[in-house]
Structure formats: C-alpha cells, structure tokens
Amino acid sequence: MNKFRKYLLMIGFIFIAGILNPIESKAQSDPGCDPLDPACPIDGGVSLLIAAGIGLGAKKAYDLKKKNKA
C-alpha cells in the first residue's frame, strides 16, 4: 500500500506541476537597456558566480596540496 501511495503522490505532483507551468511561464518585460550600449550593466550575479568558482577551485587545489603533503 505504501508503494501505491508514493506512486499516486508522484502522479499528482506531476499533474499539478503541469497545470501550474503555463501560469508561471510569462514573457519577460523589456529590461529598458540596450545590450549594445556600453553603459548597460551585465552584472546580474555573474561576477558572484565567477568569484565562487575561483574560490571553489582554490579550495580544491589547497586540499589536494595538503593531502599530497601528508
């Protein structure tokens, strides 16, 4: 019976997600900035992702170096 409940719950979740998906998919509004304009900022978190990637790479390199020393 427990397996049937999980199956029914999964089917229900997929059904609800399918119904709500068209409600959530709306066209984006105009950002109000020409992408070719040099004054238009493209920093929508990209710099944070780059910094996080550099930090993660540095930590992995440090851990690998520390492991090889020991």
Structure notes:
With 70 residues, the protein is mainly alpha-helical. Helix content is 67%, strand content 0%. It has 2 helices and no strands. It has helices at residues 2-24, 46-69. It is flat and about 55 Å long. 0% of the residues are buried. The model has no long low-confidence stretch (mean pLDDT 78).
The gist of it:
It contains 2 helices and no strands. It is mainly α and 70 residues long.
Provide keyphrases for this structure:
single chain, 70 residues, mainly alpha, flat
- Oligomerization status of the protein chains: single chain
Poorly predicted runs of 5 or more residues: none
Q: What is the terminal-to-terminal distance? A: 53 Å
In percent, how much strand structure appears in the residues? Answer: under 5%
Q: Please, how many helices?
A: 2
How are helices and strands ordered from N to C? HH
Q: Largest sheet, described in full?
A: none
- Report the structural category: mainly alpha
> What sort of overall outline do the alpha carbons produce when their principal axes are compared?
flat
Rounded to the nearest angstrom, the radius of gyration is: 23 Å
Q: Helix share of residues?
A: 55-70%
Overall mean pLDDT: 78
Number of strands: 0
